[in-house]
Amino acid sequence: MSTSIGEDAQMAKIPAYATYLYKHCVARKGSPDSEFEGCDEILAYLVVRDSQGAVVKITELVQSLMFGTGPTVHRKVSTLAERKLIQLTTSKTDARAKDIKVTAAGLDRLKEQTKFMKSCLE
């Protein structure tokens, strides 16, 4: 994202987090990929829960009430799986349930988003 020198000086007066959110929203607004909205948040949640030793099921995402209603969560999970950012497997403890695991591609996406965030905060 290119900015003018005057814009850069103006942005320097704004708290870094506000600058990041602004640039993030502008970048998302220009994206034709509306299906992906909210998917990065799910990826982040999955990575954090995995680091805590938890195996996350779709029901946990729905019950957390953080990512929308059941149908919304299922749609987001389907989008992530179709893009190979997560892997769904049958749960070892409940054959009706699906365990969710972030793939290497999913981790790469979060790393790219981290680079974007850092560039906004510099």
Automatic annotation (TrEMBL):
SUPFAM superfamilies: Winged helix' DNA-binding domain. This is MarR family transcriptional regulator. It comes from Fluviibacter phosphoraccumulans.
